[in-house]
Write a structure and sequence with these properties.
Organism: Phenylobacterium conjunctum
Number of domains: 2
Protein name: Aspartyl/asparaginyl beta-hydroxylase domain-containing protein
Number of helices: 13
CATH superfamily of the largest domain: B-lactam Antibiotic, Isopenicillin N Synthase, Chain
InterPro entries: Asp/Arg/Pro-Hydrxlase, Asp/Asn_beta-hydroxylase, IPNS-like_sf, TPR-like_helical_dom_sf
Family: Belongs to the aspartyl/asparaginyl beta-hydroxylase family.
Distance between the termini: 69 Å
Shape: elongated
CATH class of the largest domain: Mainly Beta
CATH architecture of the largest domain: Sandwich
Order of helices and strands: HHHHHHHHEHHEEEHHEEEEEEEEH
Strand content: 5-15%
Helix content: 40-55%
Radius of gyration: 31 Å
CATH topology of the largest domain: Jelly Rolls
Structural class: alpha+beta
Largest sheet: 8 strands, antiparallel
Keywords: Dioxygenase, Oxidoreductase
């Protein structure tokens, strides 16, 4: 690594050293370094350090001299002084990372290489003399991350079983392979509910009846599509409320809905066209909040449509999907978990966690049946009180 950049700016002269003396010491010291005379560089740079005027570049230069002389402890001490003056000094971070790599402290080395990359990204640009070094730091960070993961996997053994699902999730977070996504409902948050992206399907045995009716439900959907569609844009502006259409979905038919229940009310005309669907849902613990839920609908996503990341209105419920028409290149991401839909296989997720969906198929619709159910952790009393709270909100004028 070469020493480049602007020369240090000296403060007011100390009694023992004028700014001119310090500048001369810097010039002589860095010249000696460039000429491969580290032993000659040390006294000049040490003179600046002893004056109390040393800046991070001076300490880095001194560390480079000690490195060339094989003086490991003195090198590390100089680097620590550089980083105490500027914790984001890239040269000091790089040299400290290399020091720990050379001494076999891989955890410390990994932490400093990681810091190099993060500082470089935060700066937005890196001076040409350091670009290759930052690239090397990135490579070393990746190598150590792979070694670290391999060590943990060897130590922990087999984690493939369903009972280790949450352990695997914690390990992915620890390794930085996934991000942490938390419940962030737009309107109403119920505390102390588990932060679950996709809920385990086995926890909802009542879904068996709904899945078994997939063919009949799909047949009703196809009749609706063939007769008159009956779909309208899913995102509609609410009267007398501000609405910011950040994602271009307001009034957009690319994401459309055919409602059987809407805002807690059965749409009698539509329900009459879907008797098998209504029957299949009889045993589902639908989330019932008068004026708000349940909502039961066929959700249509046209070719090329992308529902941008967003959050639902409350974490007190789960959203269920029964996939009915699913072409290739369709999927949904909930938090850090991305899954394709599979026709006839229901999924349950928390829509208060950031989620998005897309249909990248060139010419086929994607249609799922959507309905909302109470979170099973809520008692009957809690469900009633949540409904009462939201009804009280709605009656305020």
């Amino acid at each position: 690594m070469t020493l480049a950049g602007a020369a240090p700016q000296w403060a007011m002269a100390q009694a023992q050293a004028s700014p001119q003396d310090l500048q001369a010491a810097w010039t002589d010291g860095t010249r000696a370094l460039r000429e491969g005379r580290p032993a000659d560089a040390v006294p000049h740079l040490r003179r600046i350090a002893e004056s109390g005027q040393a800046t991070p570049p001076v300490w880095v230069a001194l560390a480079m001299a000690h490195k060339a002389l094989g003086q490991s402890d003195a090198k590390l001490a100089a680097l620590q002084r550089a980083l105490s003056g500027d914790p984001r000094d890239l040269r000091a971070l790089l040299m400290t990372a290399d020091h720990h790599a050379e001494t076999g402290d891989t955890r410390a080395a990994s932490a400093y290489y990681d810091a190099v990359v993060k500082v470089a990204v935060a700066n937005g640009s890196v001076e040409p003399a350091l670009q290759a070094e930052v690239g090397r730091a990135q490579h070393m960070r990746e190598r150590y991350a792979a070694d670290y993961e391999a060590h943990l996997v060897r130590t922990l053994g087999d984690l493939s079983g369903p009972e280790a699902r949450r352990v695997r999730g914690s390990l992915d977070l620890l390794l930085g392979k996934t991000e942490l996504y938390l419940q962030q409902p737009k309107n109403f948050y119920f505390p102390e509910l588990p932060n679950i992206h996709y809920a385990p399907r086995a926890d909802f045995p009542w879904l068996d009846k709904i899945e078994a009716a997939t063919d009949d439900i799909r047949a009703e959907l196809m009749t609706i599509l063939e007769e008159d569609a009956g779909f309208s844009p899913y995102v509609e502006a609410e009267p007398n409320r501000p609405f910011f259409d950040d994602h271009g979905m307001l009034g957009n038919p690319n994401w459309s809905a055919f409602y059987i229940w809407k805002g807690g009310t059965l749409i009698a005309e539509n329900a009459a066209r879907c008797p098998a669907t209504v029957e299949a849902l009889k045993d589902a613990p639908l989330c019932r909040i008068p004026g708000r839920t349940p909502s039961v609908l066929f959700s249509l996503l046209r070719p090329g449509a992308h529902i941008q990341p967003h959050h639902g209105f409350t974490n007190a419920r789960y959203i269920c999907h029964l996939p009915l028409i699913v072409p290739s290149d369709c999927a949904m991401r909930v938090g850090s978990d991305t899954r394709p839909w599979v026709e006839g296989q229901a999924c349950v997720f928390d829509d208060s966690i950031e989620h998005e969906a897309w249909n990248r198929n060139a010419d086929r619709l994607r249609v799922v049946m959507i309905f909302d159910v109470w979170r099973p952790e809520l008692s009957e009393t809690e469900r009633r009180l949540v409904a009462d709270i939201l009804q009280a909100v709605d009656t305020y004028r």
